[in-house]
Amino acid sequence: MKVKLISYTEQALELLIYTKEARLSGGNTLLDIKEWPEEKKLEHLAYMLKTIKGAFEFVDYTFEIIEVSRAFTHQLVRTRTASFQQESLRAVDARTAGYSGPRNAKYDKAAISSFEAYGDLVDSGVPIQDARGILPIATHTGILMKANLRTLSTMAEHRLCTRTQGEYQEVFKRMKAEVIAIHPWAEPLLNAHCVQHGVCCFPNYDKCPVQLFTLHYTEAKREKIKQRWSETDHHSNPVAKNGRTM
């Protein structure tokens, strides 16, 4: 498994702050913000972390993810708000691709047998696009993924959760590490749901060793919130001042 960040938005923090300034008529240009001291930029970021996350869609990251299973990529591409380009088994000879999975004699024997049969089929004239049907779902592949910071933040809440399939967890941990290496300020946005909100997002999964420390969102609590919400007729009245509202 290899994960590499190959492209990202330059001056991302400054761009984020400028999108907030533009929305709330803060009066600062992008050039102004570039001249701010780091402390001031982080202060504005802290405010943005508690507001609507639309601005974070302006910051993009492109990852190269290789030597991972197709079982994993089948899960990854279900992320609708990201872009993907994956190695095609319709045209690429995969007999040397390798595979993932538990290392035990029966598993290895079955996987190796599949690859050998695949090679025999291709050598006998069966088109690659047809022969690929017998390859294991654990066959290694490579994929490029581009996603914005808001999408990555949403993914992190669930894909860093202990309930997520192990390979996916490991891939996302490496993606997070790649982002934090160049944008350390993004760390608060890339955490598991329980770390981010203090609430378990899969309360039925009681085998999680972290769940003991999370605040369970019970049905009783949900009903109280729902009742209070239904009895409330409150409308906020935000007023922009110095690039902030509330």
Structure write-up:
- This protein has 246 residues and is of the alpha+beta class.
- The chain folds into three domains: 2-85 and 139-195, Gyrase A, domain 2 (2-Layer Sandwich); 90-134, no CATH class; 198-233, no CATH class.
- Helix content is 42%, strand content 13%.
- It has ten helices and four strands.
- Helix 1 packs across helix 3 (38-48).
- The protein is globular, with a radius of gyration of 23 Å.
Keywords:
246 residues, alpha+beta, Gyrase A, domain 2, 3 domains, 4-stranded antiparallel β-sheet, 4 strands
The strand order across the widest sheet is 1-2-4-3
Number of strands: 4
Question: Helical percent range?
Answer: 40-55%
Main β-sheet description: 4 strands, antiparallel
Number of domains as seen in the coordinates: 3
CATH topology of the largest domain: Gyrase A, domain 2
